[in-house]
Specification:
Number of domains: 1
CATH architecture: Orthogonal Bundle
Order of helices and strands: HHHHHHHHH
CATH superfamily: Tetracycline Repressor, domain 2
Shape: elongated
Number of strands: 0
Low-confidence stretches: none
Distance between the termini: 49 Å
CATH class: Mainly Alpha
Mean pLDDT: 92
Number of helices: 9
Length: about 190
């Protein structure tokens, strides 16, 4: 990714957060990035492509930050806390700070749907590895690791819906963590 792309996508992220997806124009993004509209169109043919690229860049940043911390952590509880803080809680904060939160969510879910699916597959693989590393090889388990990883990932993301505030979301995530750890510690239950 070129410096120009990073500049454009950082500007697009700020503009999408401020105005939402439907109200953001290519002109808004070009002005925020300090580039001409032609330069913007040469890099990204339309607003949908900019949103997809912005989403991919943001997801890559989060994933890299999580992986960096996970490399230094040994316990699954720590890894879950790291993901919750850098993933769902950070995203909740971004959404709450956006005056056009509903439009932003709808736009991402609609336009970046394929990217969301691909991202979920990557996260689930990462959770599979993290969970597998914490299960003794001879331990009987009634849980399929892939299904448990899927459950952790999607439950953590969906916990933000209808959360009255960040504290409620954080409490939900801590209950999820305690539940997963308990299931892994008592696999026959």
């Amino acid at each position: 990714m070129t410096e120009r792309d990073v500049l454009i996508l950082n500007a697009a992220e700020a503009v999408f957060s401020r105005y939402g997806v439907s109200k953001t124009t290519m002109h808004d993004i070009a002005v925020a990035a300090g580039v001409s509209r032609q330069t913007l169109y040469n890099a990204y043919p339309n607003k949908k492509e900019i949103l997809r690229a912005t989403f991919r860049m943001g997801a890559a940043k989060i994933m890299a930050a999580v992986e960096e911390k996970w490399d230094q952590q040994q316990h699954l509880a720590e890894k879950l806390d790291t993901f919750f803080e850098l993933g769902p809680l950070a995203l909740y904060d971004v959404i709450q700070s956006s005056p056009e939160a509903a439009d932003l969510i709808d736009g991402i879910n609609t336009i970046a749907h394929d990217e969301l699916i691909e991202l979920s597959k990557i996260w689930i693989k990462m959770f599979e590895a993290a969970i597998s590393a914490h299960i003794p090889p001879d331990s009987p388990s009634r849980f399929n690791i892939n299904e448990l990883a899927d459950f952790v990932y999607f439950s953590s993301l969906n916990a933000k819906y209808y959360a009255a505030n960040r504290h409620v979301l954080s409490s939900r995530l801590q209950i999820l963590k305690a539940s997963v750890l308990s299931m892994l510690e008592n696999p026959a239950v």
